[in-house]
């Protein structure tokens, strides 16, 4: 019988720095804060950590997208890893998590610390005063295939998906807005969220259009902060301070949206392989999921992910979230309980994984979902990955 790699690995600690917009602390300080919290959470000694990695690796381009690399953290913290994950865009935002799982399962290391740090709020504040910082030429460097069509922002790209989905399935503004309103309601219960003031559906509808039909509250928000997750081999996880979280299954896929390659009719993500792979590696089914942390770089992505993962039928996600009751804390599928990237801040999905850990450990405070035992975490707008987590 085949034993999948993820079933040999447990999550044993999780940490997150204070989030700022911007932060008074440097990106490295924020990273060390998150790592120290994850290590203390697991009750593990620093010298026991023999693996260290991050997504996507240090990028010195001034964007704040990935300002800290594993080498800096190793030197600043005193860690002595024998395995350091290579910088990669790989299978999307979860590439570091998947690589760490594979390294542990192969026997290369026993405890891997994975971190994700952003300093985009500070970077944007600096760029705001720089001549030409927002010019079309600057935007084209990151969107070379879509820039000739004046789609200079990911908001323009995903607005096409939202328009197509609305045209095919009759999605209303109120249905799309339910994602943003729910996220802000959740964030109001999260002391580390950037935006905590609740919004109504009327507030959403009154907000300005960014790229039709996406409005201001449909777009995630840049922040400064760091998240760290400690992964351990199951044989080394039993004696630690925190009850380990089982990784029941994982799935991944790649797509071409980041370089402007579009396939299909714009009503689904090129991530179908994620759900197929994930559900093929477990006996659990979508109906067994107690809550979900679903990627929300833009609200339309959340709807598309719900369908891709089989949590809703094709074309049914907008009706499922309508009114917000089914995705509330006491609903059928509590969704993005930290506030997600729309309200808590853009950790490129790693905040979703951190929140899943808090929920399964019963540490989420006022936003705790009762009897949470399984959580599905989906991550990515260009490269795609998902984890099905289970309380041991």
What structural class is derived from the secondary structure elements?
alpha/beta
Could you give the order of the helices and strands?
EHEHEHEHHHHHEEEHEHEHHHHEE
Q: What is the CA-CA span between the terminal residues?
A: 22 Å
Rg estimate, integer Å: 20 Å
Q: Got a strand count? A: 11
Mean pLDDT across all amino acids: 91
Strand content: 15-25%
Q: What is the overall silhouette?
A: globular
Helix content: 25-40%
Identify the strand order in the major beta sheet: 3-2-4-7-1-8-11-10-9
Uncertain segments of ≥5 residues (pLDDT<50)? Answer: 130-142
| Continuous helix count | 14
Largest sheet: 9 strands, mixed
Describe what this molecule looks like in 3D.
This protein is α/β, with parallel strands linked by helices and about 400 residues long. It is about 35% helix and about 15% strand. It is built from 14 helices and 11 strands. It has helices at about 25-40, 70-75, 95-105, 120-130, 135-140, 155-170, 175-185, 200-205, 235, 270-280, 300-310, 315-320, 340-345, 350-360; strands at about 10-15, 50-55, 85, 110-120, 210, 215, 225-235, 245-255, 290-295, 375-380, 385-390. The strands form 2 sheets. It has a 9-stranded mixed sheet with strand order 3-2-4-7-1-8-11-10-9, with helices on both faces. A two-stranded antiparallel ribbon has the order 5-6. Helix 2 (about 70-75) links the parallel strand 2 (about 50-55) and strand 3 (about 85). The protein is globular, with a radius of gyration of 20 Å. The two termini are about 20 Å apart.
């Amino acid at each position: 019988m085949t034993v999948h790699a993820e079933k040999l690995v447990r999550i044993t600690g999780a940490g997150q720095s204070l989030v700022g917009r911007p932060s008074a602390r440097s990106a490295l300080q924020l990273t060390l804060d998150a790592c120290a919290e994850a290590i203390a959470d697991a009750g593990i000694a620093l010298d026991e950590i023999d693996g260290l990695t991050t997504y996507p690796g240090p990028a010195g381009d001034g964007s704040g997208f990935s300002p800290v690399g594993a080498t800096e953290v190793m030197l600043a913290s005193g860690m002595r890893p024998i395995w350091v994950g290579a910088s990669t865009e790989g299978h999307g935002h979860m590439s570091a998590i998947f690589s760490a799982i594979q390294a542990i399962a192969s026997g290369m290391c026993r405890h891997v610390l994975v971190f994700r740090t952003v300093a985009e709020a500070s970077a944007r504040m600096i760029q705001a005063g720089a001549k030409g910082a927002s010019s079309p030429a600057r935007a084209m460097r990151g969107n070379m295939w879509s820039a000739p069509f004046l789609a200079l922002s990911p908001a323009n790209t995903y607005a096409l998906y939202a328009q197509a989905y609305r045209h095919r399935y009759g999605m209303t503004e109120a249905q799309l807005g339910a994602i943003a309103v729910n996220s802000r309601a959740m964030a109001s219960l999260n002391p580390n969220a950037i935006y905590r003031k609740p919004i109504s559906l009327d507030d959403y509808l009154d907000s300005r259009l960014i790229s039709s039909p996406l409005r201001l509250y449909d777009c995630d928000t840049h922040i400064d902060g760091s998240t760290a997750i400690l992964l351990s081999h199951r044989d080394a996880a039993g004696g630690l301070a925190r009850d380990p979280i089982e990784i029941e299954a994982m799935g991944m896929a790649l797509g071409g949206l980041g370089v402007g390659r579009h396939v299909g009719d714009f009503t689904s993500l090129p991530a179908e392989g994620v759900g197929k792979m994930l559900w093929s590696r477990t006996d659990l089914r979508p109906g067994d999921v107690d809550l979900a942390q679903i990627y929300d770089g833009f609200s339309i992505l959340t709807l598309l992910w719900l369908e891709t993962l089989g949590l809703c039928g094709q074309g049914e996600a907008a009706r499922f979230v309508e009114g917000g009751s089914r995705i509330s804390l006491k609903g059928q599928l509590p969704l993005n309980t930290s506030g997600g990237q729309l309200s808590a801040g853009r950790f490129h999905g790693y905040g979703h994984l951190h929140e899943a850990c808090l929920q399964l450990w019963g540490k989420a405070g006022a936003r705790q979902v009762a009897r949470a035992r399984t959580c599905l975490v989906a991550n990515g707008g260009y490269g795609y990955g998902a984890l099905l987590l289970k309380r041991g």
